[in-house]
Amino acid sequence: MDLSPVFSPHRVAVVGVSLSNPFHPANIIYNKNYYADGCEVFAVNPKGGELERRPVYRSIRDVPAKVDMAVIAVKAMYVGEVARECAAAGVRSMVVISGGFAEMGAEGQALQDELVRVCEVNDIALIGPNCFGVFAPPVVDTFFLPPERTVVPKKGDIAVASQSGAFLVDQIMTNFHEAGIGISVGVSMGNKAMVDEDALMRHFASREDTKSMCFYIEGLDQGVRRFIESARDVTRYKPVVVYVGGKSERGKAAAQSHTAALAGNQEMMEGALRQSGILEAKTESEVTSFCKILSFYHHRPLSKCTIAVISSSGGHGVLASDLAEEAELIVPGFSVERQDELRELIDPGIRDIAALGNPVDLTGSSADKDFERVLDYLLGHDDIEAALMLTLPYTPMMTSFVGTRLGKVVKKHDKPVVAYVPDLAKYGMVLEGFELNGIPVVHSIETGVQMLKALRMLGLYADSGKRCPR
Amino acid sequence: MDLSPVFSPHRVAVVGVSLSNPFHPANIIYNKNYYADGCEVFAVNPKGGELERRPVYRSIRDVPAKVDMAVIAVKAMYVGEVARECAAAGVRSMVVISGGFAEMGAEGQALQDELVRVCEVNDIALIGPNCFGVFAPPVVDTFFLPPERTVVPKKGDIAVASQSGAFLVDQIMTNFHEAGIGISVGVSMGNKAMVDEDALMRHFASREDTKSMCFYIEGLDQGVRRFIESARDVTRYKPVVVYVGGKSERGKAAAQSHTAALAGNQEMMEGALRQSGILEAKTESEVTSFCKILSFYHHRPLSKCTIAVISSSGGHGVLASDLAEEAELIVPGFSVERQDELRELIDPGIRDIAALGNPVDLTGSSADKDFERVLDYLLGHDDIEAALMLTLPYTPMMTSFVGTRLGKVVKKHDKPVVAYVPDLAKYGMVLEGFELNGIPVVHSIETGVQMLKALRMLGLYADSGKRCPR
Q: Does residue B135 sit within a domain?
């Protein structure tokens, strides 16, 4: 099925706008798109009339132009009839916001089945029901949330889809915005009665603006099985990150009443995801970390999984070593000869107090050039595949130029490097120095290790057949 | 040993100020205290002379006033001699910033032993060596970091001590500042040759301004064993949070070269910590979460560990249920009768779409009063011991007043409640509405669950003898 009408409609009808309640989901959707000027938008309500002096049409068939997309926010019992009107009007895609379908039991399931039947017969791409729908600025945004209450991540190359609208808003869009990750398009799938993870992955795989993708799914139904199967091919060229909700007993019960999700066996699911080359994020922060490193390094698997840890703090090196071991990354100790060579590279003032064994602790008296020289030396050796820089802008001699210096080293060696900078607004210049020069910044050592772990996981599935040693 | 001279000196000598390098640790310490006006500060360098027209004394014995505290930043080989001069001058406490002691091998160990001997004989409280020292504003701050490059958490009731200076700065002070947690005093212990975790815990336990404490330790040496033993008593009235670094093979090696830490058996250590009622934080974010909930609820153990999850999003309820199960918290399902009673309490407009089984999903169309009534009803029942509110300020009808409404409910029932609000600056009014009314806010569902987990862990050790069921 061609999903392009879902993401690039020219004319959108919003069915169910209230003539009295400005907070009604349909009104919020109508207004946000009217003021955004991305598509032409029409209000529909059987009562007709006017909304702020703009016409309200009694039916989608009364709209005086060919409508591509219909967004439906009327009671579940009326949605089937509206769908038939959409079919008659030649609509290509429908987003059904309304709840009250399969997630509410047998009666709702029947309404949902009828809705799907109408859409299938008439070749309408159906998103939902029971969803936020489609987020594809600057063209269209069907999320019924006032725009000033949410954030819009910058344009980027990660497509996202979620069985939960709020997960998409918070754990993806808000966190991506804060982490500076850009997205191409987003979809809240809800009950995913027709367009599901599998259909969306295939669409995302074909999009030129998309280099990787991220999904939130609940449970293991037939659609998810198809999705996992299809991923075997897709993940060879576009990484796929998945977070699975509803794994616990209470979580499964909640997922059932949320989006009628079917529970799956947890271990089986984890194994299946891994075998298809999917990066399973196990925590909210892994979702952000995995997607951020992919947005910087796209498809860059590690094969040896050996990393250098370079810090200005012994304690941070200890923490990073602990976390790296848990993440199955290797922090190889350095020979005395290598340590002697490193010692020659650094400022005489820190030669007696620096620890050079990996993790490298250049101490709080180190300067930008010490980091630059040590990183250049280490990335120049085959046994080091990536590096984690623990860069603390409060050490007296570090400057905001450090990212530019290290960025040049990274470009020279073309190996992935991640920089930790504590989370304070006043370190913004240091952060930008890194990110403008191609080095992603994290605000905890944990998330830095998570990023390199994502590249290790990519390596487990890479075509090369190489595997990271355990 | 009386540690009060460590935290409230009137006159401080900084030994080792450079006459040429303004970035020298001693110069930074001298300057930050000179400009902070908390204590009187004197510069010492054997060369004598002037520093910005202020006198530099050749020896601490030349300082024309009785000095309480000496901060030492000279090469390790000279520290013993300086210590003897301090003893002669009647100094009560010494902070030795310098490295080059036990962490550097046998020669350094000998220097450290001699230093300790001098301090013991002369009843001087020794902090360090190889440390940042003492952070006790507004009186004294010996961290050699320019103040404009760091942050100062607000004054509060948590005391902190760390074997790593940078862990104390980033993972504690910076993260506490960002999370709004206040501290009483902080100590970077370094090699903790004399004043160690045990001594500091006893001191913190006696401080009126301190209600709980947090430690970062590396390895399990004799001092840590004493600390764990003493904690059995202290944790009965003041919670103690510990993060252990250096657990992995590489981490142990790094800890050895960092602070001469001795490796311990990981499982043995975890068991010992738990049996002494210590809350072991396993991640950086648990450090913050545990300390934040303690700063709101002090010593409030859970015994049943049953929580209500109340959200405006089905997906968030699913996530919270999964995380609660992992954290051994119970999200009990609600009977049909209870669900019917809850349905009567909420707005008619959401009765047909809300899921009321726990997790409660009031949907994106809910308003403040729905949350207020549902929380009031649930906290009024004995089988619910605490609640996690998943409050999304982008739902159209939520207002910034929601925290005040819920705060009144929490005060009425006196049960711990945590609120999740996504991490955006523009939600600041919502956040403050909660926190000003006694409800701590978290920015991820994970950290909200971590907070309630901390209270469950307190319950495992509570005097009541009650235990949370598994």
A: no
Residues contacting B377, CB < 8 A, separation 6+ = B341, B342, B345
At a CB cut-off of 8 Å and minimum separation 6, what does B123 contact? B1, B92
pLDDT at B464: 44
Range of B109's domain?
A: 1-130
CB contact under 8 A, B249 and A359: no
- Check: CB of residue A141 under 8 Å from CB of residue A298: no
Q: With CB atoms and an 8 Å threshold, state whether B315 touches A163.
A: yes
Beta bridge partners of B212: B158
B123 and B157 in a single domain? The answer is no
pLDDT in tens, B221-275: 888 999 999 999 999 999 999 999 988 888 888 887 777 766 667 778 888 999 9
Contact of B235 with B199, CB cutoff 8 Å:
no
Nearest CA in chain B to A400: B149
Domain annotation covers residue B431: yes
- Domain check: are A214 and A340 in the same one? no
B137 part of a folded domain: no
The structure's pTM equals 0.92
- B289 has a chain A CB within 8 A of its CB: no
Is residue B23 a contact partner of residue A396, using CB atoms and an 8 Å limit? yes
What domain count does chain B have? 3
Domain-terminating residue out of B282, B299, B316 = B299
Contact A364, A396 (CB under 8 A): yes
Round to whole Å and give the CA distance between B141 and B414.
38
Q: Note whether A285 contacts B446, CB cutoff 8 Å.
A: yes
Cα B39 to chain centroid distance, Å, stands at 25
Contacts 24+ apart (CB under 8 A), A31-38: A32/A141, A32/A146, A32/A147, A33/A140, A33/A141, A33/A142, A36/A137, A36/A138, A36/A141, A36/A147, A37/A138, A38/A137, A38/A138, A38/A139, A38/A140, A38/A141
Residue A393 lies in a domain: yes
Listed residues A266, A299, A332: the one ending a domain: A299
* Residue of B361, B362, B368 lying closest to B405 (CA atoms): B368
User: Which residues of chain B does A255 touch, with a Cβ-Cβ cutoff of 8 Å?
Assistant: 314, 318
Q: What is the mean pLDDT of residues B180-202?
A: 97
pLDDT digit string, tens, across residues A54-84: 999 999 999 999 999 999 999 999 999 999 9
